[in-house]
Amino acid sequence: MQLIGMLDSPYVRRVAISLELLGLPFEHRSISVFRQFGEFAAINPVVKAPTLVCDDGEVLMDSTLILEYAQMLAAPRRSLVPAGRAEAQHDLRLIGLALVACEKAVQIVYERTLRPAEKRHAPWVERVRGQLGAAFAQLEGELAKAPCAATSDSITQAGVTAAVTWEFVQSVLPEVAAASAFPALATHTAAAEALPEFRALPSS
Q1: What is the pTM of this model?
Q2: How many C-beta neighbours within 10 Å does residue 155 have?
């Protein structure tokens, strides 16, 4: 398989790390949706990262859908989904919160880097920033009550996505979410980033 996209994208990185944790062999092709638009379009005409080229050449996209496919490939040998129904449900809640924070962070970055200054709408940016903060506050509360596992054998998709999202926000928008305000998230991310699967696939 080939994973297409840059690791500075949290969506690409969550897939890459998950494939490593699941023990699925893949080739990572670091192609930018901005600087190498034409090259990316030749692989996937809609130019969406991450893109996964399956062994038979079929192209998948969207990180959550790619991870669903990867989970099927790895089963029953390894899973990033908790076995119990209640545990899996809670994992989905954490993933949802982390993905909201990730989405809102990306929106702010795009607003700052792609939209001309005179066309930026401050009230909308503040709304998005508030949504990001709310998602992190909810996630922090959940992790404070029950920390996510952070070993190669025990980490779940919630643990992967939370760590990748927190690292991304700290690297591009550190002023939006101070580490001191989210100690559980910061602690979990530090432990996850120390794992070999995370170290092998740095965001920069």
Answers
A1: 0.96
A2: 24
Which residues lie closer than 8 Å to 28 by C-beta, 6 or more apart? 2, 3, 7, 16, 201
Give the distance from CA 179 to its chain's centroid: 18
CATH number of 2-74: 3.40.30.10
Query: What does the angle CA 139 – CA 51 – CA 42 come to, to the nearest 5 degrees?
Result: 150
Q: How far is CA 19 from CA 14, 27, 45, 106, in A?
A: 9, 10, 24, 23
Q: How far is CA 127 from CA 42, 94, 179, in A?
A: 36, 21, 21
For 23-59, the pLDDT digits (tens) are: 999 999 999 999 999 999 999 999 999 999 999 999 9
**Distance from CA of residue 162 to its chain's centroid?**
7
Cα distances from 197 to residues 16, 21, 56, 178, in angstroms, run 9, 6, 26, 26
| CATH T-level topology, domain 85-196 | Glutathione S-transferase Yfyf (Class Pi); Chain A, domain 2 (1.20.1050)
